[in-house]
Write a structure and sequence with these properties.
Blueprint: H1 3-10, H2 19-30, E1 50-51, E2 57-59, E3 62-72, H3 77-81, E4 84-86, H4 87-99, E5 105-115, H5 120-128, E6 136-145, H6 147-153, E7 157-160, E8 165-167, H7 179-184, H8 209-234, H9 238-243, E9 248-250, H10 252-257, E10 262-263, H11 266-293, H12 305-339, H13 348-357, H14 362-371, H15 384-387, H16 392-399, H17 416-432
Parallel strand pairs: 3-4, 3-5, 5-6, 6-7, 6-8, 7-10
Antiparallel strand pairs: 1-2, 2-3, 8-9
Helix pairs in contact: 4-5, 5-6, 5-8, 12-13, 12-14, 14-17
Length: 433
């Protein structure tokens, strides 16, 4: 393309063109003709940001992906520089950033009022699948409305400035009826068609009730998809989304409604993300140094799988031995607490049985002993030494030819009261004999 020739026809000549149109042309030619123009961005990438061939800039490991202007299903180079951006171009940039090893996080720079419904939700779903791979921040310094907010909701977090606007979760369509204007101009358009609904929505005739009903059904269906998408991405209820009635929320209002995660300026948020990356890199480097120190000093190579398994087995054995040691100390302390308690006096056999033959906690055993009768007080003095070698059941059998031991508690009860009742029942039976 002959850019100098185009420049001759633009500069220094009168043009019959509107100001917005000339600005669009200048934006298209800016990079080609080295024209220094301030970009209409609420946030400009840092000076150290390097332009990637994939359409985004990289600053200290963060890819800055622009999401500007009206969003469309597809656009040309001229459309993009004139304020249109396609969903495919946004998705491609994010996917490239995810596959770029030099990129550690994605910073979506949003300034869009929304756009076409076609392919919008496909783009949202595609972006959502990247969650968890690398941090994705949707930064809204100005606006992310309607389809723009749908895209932003697919990111891990949405951050707004104090004046940033998000929301407008709704769908709209406009029918333009030019029939009366054409009639005044003497223009008549005749449709020749097959199929009753073929020309529904034609601008050359009023919108019929049936056509309006069909269009409304389509709008309602898209609205349902929109609501479900945002509710899922933002972890909100569908009722909460519908209750917004497509309102736009600014700053703190966006935070209160759940449409944003925090309020921050674009520069501070980018700096925070870069600092987080730097911190994680230091942690990774520390882990690398740790692994490196485990390398064989002689060969300076990483441990073989066999050596690594050997060290793991050794660590397990050491851990088990330490566990046994701790367990033995705890068991000794439990036995000492039981046998050394005042509640064991006069209940020696029961105390020893509960200490050595069960794994009850010392507190539980002491509670049982406290509520149990002192057996030694009911026996003959001469029998004490012999009884100390027998179990409570053997004591009963030795003293009585037909001891009827009938515990009051059921077999399924295992608390302190049931144990005390058993001992008491045994004691009563022995006295009755």
């Amino acid at each position: 393309m002959n850019y100098p020739r185009i420049a001759e026809r633009i500069f220094g000549r009168p043009l019959l063109i509107t100001e917005p149109a000339i600005q669009s042309i200048l934006w298209v030619l800016a990079d080609r003709l080295d024209i220094n123009m301030s970009r209409p961005e609420s946030f400009r990438a840092p000076a150290d940001a390097q332009r990637s061939e994939n359409g985004y800039r990289i600053s200290q490991g963060v890819s800055i992906v622009p999401v500007f202007g009206k969003l469309v299903q597809r656009s040309s180079f001229l459309d993009a520089r004139s304020g249109l951006m396609s969903y495919d171009s946004i998705v491609d940039r994010i996917e490239s950033a995810m596959n770029d090893n030099s990129v550690k996080a994605v910073f979506g720079n949003f300034d869009t009022p929304g756009g076409e419904a076609a392919e919008a939700f496909d783009a949202v779903d595609y972006i959502s699948q990247f969650r968890g791979r690398k941090p994705m921040i949707a930064m809204v310094a100005d606006m992310a409305a309607s389809a723009g907010y749908a895209l932003a909701s697919a990111f891990d977090e949405v951050v707004v400035t104090r004046t940033g606007k998000v929301g407008s979760v709704g769908v709209v369509a406009v029918h333009r009826d030019e029939s009366q204007a054409n009639e005044k101009r003497g223009l008549v358009y005749t449709h020749i068609f097959a199929g009753a609904h073929k020309v529904d929505g034609s601008p050359y005739m009023p919108l019929s009730a049936a056509a309006k009903e069909d269009f409304q059904a389509e709008i309602d269906q898209l609205y349902d998809v929109f609501v479900r998408t945002v509710a899922s991405n933002r972890r909100l209820s569908e009722d909460a989304i519908r209750a917004t009635e497509a309102r736009i929320f600014t700053g703190q209002g966006a935070l209160d409604i759940g449409f944003a995660d925090r309020i921050n300026s674009a520069r501070d948020e980018l700096a925070r993300l870069q600092a987080d990356i730097s911190s994680r890199n230091r942690i990774s480097l520390a882990n690398y140094d740790t692994r490196k120190s485990a390398m064989n000093d002689e060969t300076k190579v990483e441990l073989t799988e066999k050596q690594l398994d050997g060290r793991i087995d050794k660590a397990k054995t050491e851990g088990e031995n330490e566990g046994f040691k701790v367990g033995a100390e705890a068991e000794r302390a439990r036995i000492k607490a039981i046998l050394g308690s005042e509640h064991a006096d006069g209940r020696d056999e029961l105390a020893r049985h509960l200490a050595f033959e069960t794994d009850m906690k010392s507190e539980t055993v002491l509670g049982i002993l406290e509520k149990s009768p002192k057996i030694s007080a009911t026996l003959e003095e001469s029998d004490e030494s012999a009884l100390t070698k027998l179990t409570p059941f053997e004591i009963a059998m030795a003293k009585h030819s037909n001891a009827q031991v009938k515990p009051d508690a059921t077999a399924t009860e295992e608390n302190e009261d049931s144990w005390a009742k058993r001992v008491a029942g045994y004691s009563k039976t022995r006295k009755a004999g």
